[in-house]
Write a structure and sequence with these properties.
heterodimer, A: 222 residues, B: 6 helices, globular
Chain lengths: 222, 245
């Protein structure tokens, strides 16, 4: 347990002190949100209607952007090999790394989302609900992305392959995240059911992601 | 000969050579019967006219596209649990074939949708989940091409295949939920939910024909892949002996 805590602390410290990955993700998120009105026009009503979708897709893309840093740096300097040989179960070790990655890249996106919601003319209580769905849903994106990050390390080839592999798997999270977010905008839409399913998806991917990523690392790096 | 002995690539090659002509002949026969029934025996739908015949290609394509992933999942277990080279071959060669059948399903679906729904594409639940399946096939093929070391590629692809096998039902379910939320399913239930026996029988024959076609292509693709690997090994050996001399 202490080893996992140390790993979590180390990764968080590294991410905060080196490189500014968290800020870069938020900046990218802001850029996506800024680009959409140029695409669909400055109609505030329309923007308010599709606001949750824009925030979710922006968060999804920003999460993907940071994924290749999740394991690649440790692979380059050899610490991933130490983790592989260590006593801590590999599944839990990569889960700790993914959690640290979410804390430093996913959580800033969630914190920034309410501010960006104002740009999109989403009103107060709705912003809170969308941010809540992001808080619950973005861990699923990171933990699904963990599989892609492990594959990218095993292949020693990242680039576009990682999003191509990861994006189809994130379809359910996107669907239920946006559905729950839409409930804040459309009064008729139900909130409880999609929100609970979103929680279920997050819990499922917290299990599947580390197990699959550990399998990839065990079999892929020899 | 025990069934497990087929896992030996040489025995598999021998069996494939014997089996392939029969499989190909059975495929041709089944297609002849199925296409005849589809075009001349099956009645036209009272609403859709002759376009209902697209179904005889469309629906088996979808079934075989899904079967492809199921076969790959079994092969993926063989790769991860036993690290068997033949399982790697089975895993690798199923992906392009499954993708091709899924593509047939998508294209015929679009051609069918044009006269029926007035548009080539609607974001209907079934179409969308088949599209996601197709994209996952393409991602998997891209993964195979990204790694040079074949054994490592097989293991990475096996994990992704199993993750996909777990996720595909979830994706299917969520896309169903998503689409029914936005648009009622009844609109896109063309031809009604129950299928008349006069149409069902040709459909089943065509499904059999598609399955035989899949089997023929699959066995020959596996044979080709084994031979390709042998050629590669021989070439490497040749280079080594030339350098050694």
């Amino acid at each position: 347990m202490t080893a996992l805590a140390a790993l979590l602390l180390r990764d968080t410290r590294l991410a905060v002190r080196v490189g500014g990955g968290a800020l870069m993700g938020v900046l990218f998120f802001l850029l996506v949100v800024t680009m959409v009105p140029f695409g669909v026009g400055p109609d505030l009503k329309l923007l308010a209607r599709i606001g949750p979708a824009i925030l979710w897709i922006g968060a999804l893309l920003a999460t993907l952007l940071g994924l290749d840093r999740l394991l690649a740096a440790d692979h380059d300097d050899g610490s991933l090999d130490l983790i592989l040989m260590g006593h801590a179960p590999l599944e839990l070790a990569v889960a700790a790394k993914a959690l640290a990655h979410w804390l430093t890249t996913g959580l800033p996106l969630v914190i920034a989302a309410p501010l960006f919601g104002i740009f999109l003319n989403i009103d107060g209580s709705a912003i809170g609900i969308v941010a809540l769905t992001l808080l619950v849903g973005t861990p699923a994106l990171t933990f699904i992305g963990l599989i892609g990050a492990a594959l990218a390390v095993a292949l020693e080839r990242g680039g576009l392959l990682l999003p191509v592999l990861v994006l189809p798997l994130t379809v359910p999270v996107l669907i239920f995240g946006i559905a729950a977010g839409d409930a804040a905008i459309l009064n008729a839409a139900p909130f409880g059911a999609p929100f609970l399913i979103l929680i279920a998806l997050t819990l499922t991917s917290v299990v599947i992601g580390p197990v699959a990523a550990a399998a990839v690392l065990r079999h892929g790096l020899d | 000969m025990e069934w497990i002995a087929l896992a030996n690539p040489s025995r598999f090659l021998a069996l494939a050579e014997r089996l392939l002509p029969w499989l190909a002949a059975a495929t041709a026969l089944a297609f002849a019967a199925g296409l005849y029934a589809a075009f001349f025996v099956a009645p036209e739908d009272y609403q859709q006219g002759a376009t209902v015949r697209i179904m005889f290609i469309h629906v088996p394509g979808a079934w075989l596209g899904m079967l492809g992933w199921a076969i790959m999942s079994v092969a993926a277990l063989g790769t991860l649990v036993w690290r068997h080279p033949l399982a790697d071959v089975a895993l690798k060669t199923a992906a392009p074939i499954g993708a091709a059948f899924t593509f047939v399903c998508l294209v015929t679906g679009a051609l069918w949708g044009r006269p029926m729904w007035g548009t080539y594409w609607v974001w209907d639940a079934r179409l969308t989940s088949v599209l996601v399946l197709f994209l996952m096939y393409l991602g998997l093929i891209a993964l195979w091409r990204a790694i040079e070391d074949r054994a490592r590629a097989a293991r990475a692809a096996a994990v992704l295949t199993l993750v996909g096998a777990v996720n595909l039902p979830i994706i299917k379910f969520s896309v169903d939920w998503w689409s029914t939320l936005h648009q009622p399913a009844s609109v896109f239930r063309v031809g009604g939910s129950t299928i008349h026996p006069a149409i069902l029988a040709p459909l089943l024959v065509m499904a059999l024909a598609f399955t035989l076609l899949f089997a023929t292509l699959y066995v020959s693709a596996m044979r080709n892949e084994i031979l390709r690997r042998r050629v590669r090994t021989l070439r490497l050996l040749q280079v080594q002996t030339v350098q050694g001399a």
